[in-house]
Amino acid sequence: MRYSETLLPTLKETPAEAEIVSHRLMLRAGFMHKLTSGIYSYLPYGLAAIRKVENIVREEMNRAGAHELLMPSVQPADLWKESGRYEKYGPELLRFRDRHDRESCLGPTHEEVITDIIRKMLHSYRDLPINLYQIQTKFRDEIRPRFGLMRGREFIMKDAYSFDVSDSAAEISYRRMYEAYRRIFTRCGLEFRAVQADSGAIGGSFSHEFMVLAETGEDTVVFCRECEYAANIEKAVIRLKENNQVEPLAELEKVETPGKRKVDAVCEFLQISPDQLVKTLVFIADSVPVGVLVRGDREVEEVKLKNLLGAADVEMIDDKQVYDITGVPTGYLGPVGLTIKIVVDQEVESMVNFYVGGNEKNYHMKNVNAIRDFEVSAVADLRQITTTDPCPECGGKLELTEGIEVGHVFKLGTGYSESMQATFQDENGQEKPFVMGCYGIGVSRVVAAAIEQNHDDNGIIFPVPLAPYTVIVLNLGLKDKKITEAAERLYSELQSQGVDVLLDDRDERPGSKFKDADLLGVPFRVTVGKSLTNSGLVEVRDRKSGATEEVTPDQVVAVLLSKIAVEQI
Ligand SMILES: [Zn+2]
Fold it and tell me: Could you tell me the domains of the chain?
């Protein structure tokens, strides 16, 4: 590609609208153009990066035995009504009517459409398993689109769907996709973790998220240094430390704690540690108040609470609302005598003679014990894991990191096939629902995540496999015949070797060419300028390490090919 011919506008200034690094750099490096909120045109440079991801995804999906198809983005509402998601999905589903007044929607995902295809076209166990995928534009009407391609309304996704005869067969399909995803993100040159995830609204029975590790990630991942364990913090199961201390239950007692409302203040005043105190928090779960008990130094994990209660929505309420419901002033709420439903974190269940709020201003209670002193409607793992907890798999040391979700694999089961009556005949001639799995990769998001993980103050540092161009050749002497000839020759030689190369043949100052090459994140830069005239050499620079070397024009192609080979996976 000749820079002078393409549309690759770079910006010196950072656009004010961009909050995160990848968004800033993608706008500055001419990846895209915003059409309206959350909707972008992909310009040539951005599209080239997306194509790199797509190619890797396509190769690995095909290798794993999946087959590509392409489904429409406009979908009839009737299919969504059949699956029951038309009502459930909420305002993120963009709904509209066509000229015949038929209800339609723009597909945020394609379970319904693929299930409709399969139920009409496959009827026998002999047709299974099958795994079909597409790389397609999706639409989700996000309430607050932001972060550029990270959370747009329109985005490019790879979605795959597997159909199997049984649960155990579906597990094999799942495993195959899991391995394909590991290969895909490894080949993209990204540092990632496959983590056990909460399956959320899709209602899967089992799922993993693939997270690209980056400081700016929206999700927190907990992982073990000593084994393969990694989980989304929302889903991380807590292994309790053994508690062998047997202490006799003491008599319940009221203690005065004047003006002490916060955990730290109460503990300091009573000369106890936060692990002897139990907090009572009130959540509204689908409009019903629920008291949740966790140790003083712990935090409630809302997703775990939601799952325990089977609620669509849980929300912690503020002090005023707590007062309206319980009549207890801020900081003194406790479970003894409380009339709302109470659920207890498993850790609290094993505690004896602990402290709680006294349900009265300026009072707490000591020697409190669950069940003896208050009714418990459920005990479960309800708190957030911390780095002081042992690894649930091996007992090793845990660490937390931030991550960006770029892929998700779900074992769906028969939810869609049952509601949409998608069945096949098994070996005995019996009708059975297909057992499904679905597997997504946010293709445009992978590019954004790659930039979040790989950049510096000067711009993007693309991993070689995702770089739109692997090499940029700078012609620093447009009017100099010798320099221009050498740059042109390198450009065509690299192209003939199959290297994606960008020739900067613009009439610009050397300084801005260097700046742009850094901003664009092209892994290798070749400078053809004065050195060629003076000593017959050109400079090769590695964007990532900053290392430079001077070589003769004849050596450049071989030098670059060997550097690229090291980086290609
Ligand atoms: Zn471990």
Answer: 21-235+400-452 (3.30.930.10), 253-380 (3.90.960.10), 469-567 (3.40.50.800)
**Ordered DSSP codes for 330-358:** TT---STT--SEEEEEHHHHT--SEEEEE
* Phi, psi for residue 70 in degrees, rounded to 5: -140, 120
Ligand 1 center–CA 244 separation, angstroms: 23
The whole-angstrom separation of Cα 372 and Cα 210 is 45
pTM of structure: 0.82
Q: Is the peptide bond before 468 cis (omega within 30 degrees of 0)?
A: no
**CA 388 – ligand 1 centroid, Å:** 13
Which residues have a Cβ under 8 Å from the Cβ of 488 and sit 6 or more positions away?
475, 503
pLDDT digit string, tens, across residues 273-332 = 999 999 999 999 999 999 999 999 999 999 999 999 999 889 999 999 999 999 999 999
State mean pLDDT over 51-79: 98
Two structure tokens written together for 190? 């990204």
Distance from Cα 395 to the centre of ligand 1, integer Å: 6
CA 390 to ligand 1 center in whole angstroms = 8
Report, in angstroms and rounded to the nearest whole number, the Rg of the chain calculated over CA atoms: 29
Identify how many contiguous H helices and E strands the chain contains and give both numbers: 16, 31
Report angle CA 242, 205, 167 to the nearest 5 degrees. 115
Residues that place a CB less than 5 A from ion ligand 1: 224, 226-227, 229, 391, 393-394, 396
Residues 79-120 pLDDT 10s: 999 999 998 898 999 999 999 999 999 999 999 999 999 999
10 Å Cβ neighbour count for 206?
A: 16
- Main-chain dihedrals φ then ψ at residue 121, nearest 5 degrees: -115, -20
User: What spacing in Å lies between the alpha carbon of 225 and ligand 1's midpoint?
Assistant: 7
The neighbour count for residue 519, using CB atoms within 10 Å, is 20
The whole-angstrom distance between residue 113's C-alpha and the CA centroid of its chain comes to: 25
Interval between CA 223 and ligand 1 midpoint (Å): 8
Question: For residues 69 and 403, what is the distance between their CA atoms, to the nearest angstrom?
Answer: 30
Ligand 1 center to 398 CA (angstroms): 7
CA-wise closest residue to 485 among 469, 502, 505: 505
User: Bridge partners of 405?
Assistant: 211
pLDDT higher than threshold 50 for residue 201: no
CA atoms within 13 A on the CB side of 92: 17
